[in-house]
Amino acid sequence: xxxxxxxxxxxxxxxxxxxLLHGASGEDGSLQALLELxxxxxxxxxxxxxRVAWNKAVAKAVMMREGISTxxxxxxxxxxxxxxxxxxxxxxxxxxxxxxxxxxxVRGGSALGVSIVRDRADLARAMVHCFAYGDVALIERHVEGxxxxxxxxxxxxxxxxxxxVEVAVEGAxxxxxxxxxxxxxxxxxxxxxxxxxxxxxxxxLTVHRTMDLRDxxxxxxxxxxxxxxxxxxxxxxxxxxETSLLPQAAEAAGLDLGSAYSALVADAHGRGIVD
Amino acid sequence: MAxxxxxxxxxxxxxxxxxxxxxxxxxxxxxxYAQRAHQMRASEIRALFAVASRPEVVSLAxxxxxxxxxxxxxxxxxxxxIIVEHGEVALQxxxxxxxxxxxxxxxxxxxxxxxxAHPDDVVVTTGSQQALDLVxxxxxxxxxxxxxxxxxxxxxxGVFRAHEADVVHVPMDAHGLIPExxxxxxxxxxxxxxxxxxxxxxxxxxxxxxxTLSLERRPQVLEICERYGVLVLEDNxxxxxxxxxxxxxxxxxxxxxxxxxxxxxxxxxxxxxxxGWAVAPHAVREKLVLASEAAILSPSNASQMAIxxxxxxxxxxxxxxKFQVQYRERRDAMISALGEHIPEASxxxxxxxxxxxxxxxxxxxxxxxxxxxxxxxxAYVSGSAFYIDGSGTDHLRLSxxxxxxxxxxxxxxxxxxxxxxxxETVRIFGTSxxxxxxxxxxxxxxxxxxxxxxxxRTSCTYSFWPAGCHTSATCRFAVAGGSRRRxxxxxxxxxxxxxxxx
Lengths: 275, 502
Hints:
The complex is a heterodimer. By secondary structure, chain A is α+β, with helices and mostly antiparallel strands.
C-alpha cells in the first residue's frame, strides 16, 4: 500500500476489491477499514472482525467464551518480564502449562517469530526471538496431533466448509516449509475418519460464523489425541500461492476455483458496503 | 494433484477408517532435484528483505553502487548510437572469450594495479560473479576444500555451496588475511589429507570486512600458497575505490602463474551491464573459455560494446575519482553517525570500498534482531551471511554506497533504537534469540572467535578499529569515539577484540 492507493481506487471506477495483501496492513483490519471508509465494496472479512482475528490473544479469548477448543495459553508483554523478573515468570509458565510450549507473537503470520520449546533452557531464547517481532507474546501449550487446515467459503448460513487439508512435514511447519514447495506432504482431503472429518469441519464452521468472518477463511487446527479439534489460528486472508491450502481444499472438494472465486466476488458485489 | 472429493475418500473403507494413500508435495519433481537443491531453504530473512526494498526503509544492506552519480544522459546517447550504428554486431552472438576491443581496454584498467597481461589472457564474463562460478566449476568436486577469509563475500559462499565445496575460513585482522593463520590452516588440512583447491580472497576493501591486505603480507600469502600448491583466486571489485591511497599492486601482478584474477565494472561503473572478467594462467584460461561457452555461449555483445565505448570516450578515471569523493563522504557520515548513536558497538573505518563491519554490543545477535530492524524501517545484513556455517551473528554489515548521507544518518539513528530495544530484551532474558532463530543444536561459534589478534597486537592500526584504538601491546580494548549515552562497565564497553582471549 502506498499513497497511490486512494487515488487509484477513486479513479478506477471500482466495483469490487479483493484484498490479497498478507501481513499487518492486509490482515489486521486496516485495509478493510480504509475500504469501508471509502465506500468500496470488497471481498472478505470486515474490519472489526479482522481486528479480532488478527490478534491471537483476543481471538482465543472470544473462542473460549464461545466454547471453541483452543490450547491453553497466556499472553504477556515484554514489560511484565522486566518488571517481575523473567525467570520467575518463565518458571510459572512451565509450571502451569508444562513443556513443550509454543511461543509466538500475538500478531503475525507465516510462522514468523514462532518457536516450539521442548527444553526449559531454550525458553528465554524463544522469548527474545518472539519479541523481535512484537511487544506481546502468546505462550500456549503445545498440542500433539494431526495438523489440519480447514477452509470455509461463503458467509453466515450460506458458508460451506471445504475438506480439511492435512499437513505432514518432517520437523516444524516453519516458514521454509510453508513456502518451499515440496518439503511438506499434503493430504487433501485429510486422512480422517468420517467422524473426525465432521469434528474438524464443525469447528471451522463455528469459528467462521462466530467470529463473523465473511466470504473465505482458513482455520488452522490440531486434531488432538482425544479427538478434539484445537483451533490454533484464524486466517481471514488465506494464502493463494501454489503451496497454499485453500486452493488445495477447493480442488479436493471438486470445486472449480474460477467459479468459486467468481461467486465470492458476486456475493460481495451483491452485498455492497457493510459496516 | 489432489485426491477425489472428501466424502468419497473418507468413506471409502467399509469400516469407516481412512484409506492409506500418498499425499502430494505440490512439486512433482521434488524427488528429482540434485542433493544441493535440497540445501536451498526459504528463510525468514528472505521474507524480511522483501519488505526492506520498500522506499520507507533505509537500506544499509545492499552493495549497490551510486548509479545516480553517472552521466546518465550521455550514457543514454552512447547506448543509442551503439544500437543504431552498430546494432548488427551489438545484438548478435559474440566470441566466447569476449570482445577483443574490450579485452584490450581491460588491460588499461588492470595496469593501474600493476597487472601486465595480453588480451588473450582475459576472459570476459557476465559479471565477475560468473567468473567465480566458472573457476569453481572447473576446479571443485564435491567435498574439495576452498580456503576463504573470515568473514567472506556472501556471493562467493553461495557459489561454493552450490558446488558442494567444503569452505574453511581463515581469520583476518586490520591488515587483511593473517599469513600465520593461513599457514596453520593449510598445514592442518594437509596433515588431514585434504586437498585445498584454492584460496579465495578479496584483498582490497574487503566485503564485508572493509580491510585491505597489506603490501607487506601480499608476497607472504603468495609464498605460502605456492609452497602448499594452492591456487589463489583474487577477487578485486573495489581496488580502485580507495579514498586516500594509491591502489596496491595486485596479487596477480606478483604471481602471474599462481593467481586467477577477477575484475568487475559493477562497482567502478555500473552493475547493470553485467560485465566482469577473469585473467588466468594460460591453461586455466582455456578451460574457463570452454566452461563459459558451455554456460552462456558468449557474454552480451551490447554490454561489452557499451563498456568499451565508455572506456574509450568517457573520462572513466575521473568518474572513479568522483565516486571516491562521494563514497568517502558517505563513509564519513556513517562513521560519524555510529559514533553518535551506537557508541557501545565497535567498527572498522574502511579506507575504500562500500562497507563497515560492525561488532554489536555483547549479547546481541544480528540475525535475531533483524525483524525488529525492519519494523524500525532500517535494513542491514547479518554477519552470519558471511560465514559458511552461519556463525558471525555478533556482527552486521552496513553499506554506505547507495543512500545519501542524510539517509545514512537516519538509518543509523533508527538502528540505534533497534540496538537499544534488543539490548533491553536480552538483558531481561539474559540471552539472545539466536538459538531460537536458528534451530541448530551445534555450538554456535561467534565471529569474535575468528579474530585472534594475539600475533598482531603491536601493529593494530586505526584503519580497522574504532577511532582512538590504542596500538600498544597493553591495549585491551578499542574505545569508540563520539558521545556516549550510557555508562557501562569498562570491561564490556566497546569490546573490540579480547586480545588475551584464551
